[in-house]
Amino acid sequence: MEHISMILLSGGIGARMKASVPKQFLPIGGKPIIVHVLDKLENIKEISEIVVPSPRNYMEQTKEIIRNYQFSKPIQVIEGGKTRQESVYKALRCVTRENVLIHESVRPFVTKEEFERLIQTEERNATYGMDIPFTVLEGGEYIEKNLDRSRLINIQLPQKFDTAKLLAAHEQAIKDGKTFTEDVSLYFHYNGERIKVLRGTEYNIKITRPIDQTIGEIIYKEYILGGE
């Protein structure tokens, strides 16, 4: 695989964490959550550049963390958007490679091997995903429809895309006023192309609520430190 760009989303302000700082700065194992991801990216030779969309008020803090940990890869911190989708769009306009990886800084337990497997898969568009281990039904105030759990996928990150096609899809979404929660659904809606699903792990959790930080400390001690 030729060189590839990396977008590391760091745009959240962590309202659900009820913390005084965005969740990507909270510590797990004594290190800010975002550093756990950057540590892995640092050692992946195919990744030639990293763009980090950040809330305007936390751009300097993000840059300071990057300086303190002395990462050698080119890392560009940009002002993120008001939404996750807008942050990805702004970052896509900054990257220079034909393929791009997208990951969230608040998924700290992704492994170097998971990034490499994604990079090396032949398909230009791919995502990690997990089977759904519980029953999901469609409805609002009342149940409206049964869904076939065996046909459903819990989408995880990281993801890989053809940069130009993802950018074009984002531009079309802006024109249409459509909002998506992540980029596989956006890309598939506008391009309809095959997107390879690689099987993820239950460790690759997203730190969103206070309990997730507690679970994260356990994963770090048992899975990360325990595996060394």
What does this structure look like?
The protein is α/β, with parallel strands linked by helices. The protein has one domain (4-225): Spore Coat Polysaccharide Biosynthesis Protein SpsA, Chain A, CATH 3.90.550.10. It has 7 helices and 11 strands. The protein has helices at 33-42, 59-68, 84-92, 112-120, 163-176, 183-191, 210-225, and strands at residues 4-9, 27-28, 31-32, 47-54, 75-79, 99-104, 126-131, 137-139, 143-146, 153-162, 196-199. The strands form 3 sheets. Strands 5-4-1-6-10-7-11 form a 7-stranded mixed β-sheet, with helices on both faces. It has a two-stranded antiparallel ribbon with strand order 2-3. A two-stranded antiparallel sheet has the order 8-9. Strand 4, helix 2 (59-68) and strand 5 form a beta-alpha-beta unit. The two termini are 28 Å apart. The model has no long low-confidence stretch (mean pLDDT 92).
